[in-house]
Amino acid sequence: MIKMDTMYICTTPFQVMSAISMAVDRKEKADLYIDPQFQGANEIAERIRKRNIFDTVQVLEGVKAIRYVRGASGRLERYRRIFALYHQIDKVAGEILLPNRSYRAMFATHNVFVANLLMMYYSKFQIKTRVYFYDDGEGSYDNRDIFRISLPDRMSKRVILRNKKMCKPRRYYMYSPQLFSNMHPDNRTPVFELPKFNRNPVVLEHLSAVFEITEEKGISEPVIILDALKEVVLSPKDDKKIVQLYDRLQEEFGEDRVIVKRHPRDTRTYENPIREYAYKNMPFESICIASEPGKMNLITLLSTATIMPKLLMDEEPRIVLLYHLFHRLEGDDEDRDRFFELTKETYRDPDRICIPDSEEELNQVIRTIKEELNRNSK
């Protein structure tokens, strides 16, 4: 049996970034398991292998248990299939885990399916692998139910385990323990801070190589419009109104100072297009690594990507959130207000997060940015 420090389970590129950062910072003997729910998973896995960060990088392709549950039609059928898997959890775990390995700890992001299966396996056979949950971006902070296990799942585990104790996460690892604690005041699980990407040049080197982050992919324009899927959240009237606002921002700041980072799924056409960031599918956290996020002015209807520079690099771009100026068809402004107000509390300069309530307040923000840009250009 090969004794390893840690196994990491990842289902997104962001999680892979965090796993690389943690493994390097903790100097661990670790394996990486990737559930390929994102495009390019195999290519990323191969680039990670070349960096020798992990002992083994395992892409969970062809795992029958995963395909069996994801092929379910409807919630009830899904739970029925999960329950069936729990009855043969040793076989399921054998299909997922590398052979002849034991782990001191498992890192996963909340209750992802693969992690849930392994937690059941550890519980049923009383395997002493500690479970830790780590940051999954904005959802780890503003989703109140992110760590809550569903009632059917709890009942299934109770039937299978009987008197055995279900293993739970012993710690949470977050990029901003302060924001997490503010958003989840009733949490009783210890919260530890994850290292910022830019505090370790080796981490930045690995991330740049694995995710093909180069200097040319950075954004040098000081005003960045982080676009959103407007047709989903706005009325048709306000959808036109925000495009007019984008045109105005281009006039106010100058074409060479403004760029749009389009949402990857946004296919709409603009009548007076602003210059667009060329690498449309590049995650904003990667752009931050390639840029100087502390110098950015991020203007957005409602993009939670704006908090990434602070979370991942402790950089404080100015954030201008426009959602109070438009009628949203979905979502709860009260929840959003709470999230961004508590995010402000993590800033050294809280005034760099602005949520204008009127055109006049927006005009003042625009004047402030213009004055700052003009001073810096002298």
Relevant terms:
378 residues; alpha/beta; seven-stranded parallel beta sheet; globular
Task: Describe it.
This protein has helices at 13-26, 41-51, 64-70, 75-86, 89-96, 113-124, 139-142, 151-161, 177-183, 201-210, 230-233, 236-253, 284-290, 308-313, 333-344, 359-377; strands at 2-10, 30-34, 56-59, 101-108, 130-134, 171-174, 191-193, 223-226, 258-261, 297-300, 318-321, 353-354. It is an alpha/beta fold. Strands 3-2-1-4-5-6-7 form a 7-stranded parallel beta sheet, sandwiched between helices. Strands 9-8-10-11-12 form a 5-stranded parallel beta sheet, covered by helices on one side. Helix 14 (308-313) links the parallel strand 10 (297-300) and strand 11. The chain is globular and about 65 Å long. 34% of the residues are buried. The model has no long low-confidence stretch (mean pLDDT 89).
Order of helices and strands: EHEHEHHHEHEHHEHEHEHHEHEHEHEH
- With strands numbered from the N-terminus, the spatial order across the biggest sheet is 3-2-1-4-5-6-7
The average pLDDT score comes to: 89
Low-confidence stretches: none
Estimated share of beta-strand residues: 5-15%
**Biggest sheet features:** 7 strands, parallel
The Rg value, from CA coordinates, equals: 23 Å
Overall shape: globular
Q: What is the CA-CA span between the terminal residues?
A: 65 Å
Put simply, the count of helices is 16
Total strand segments: 12
Please bin the fraction of helical residues: 40-55%
Structural class: alpha/beta
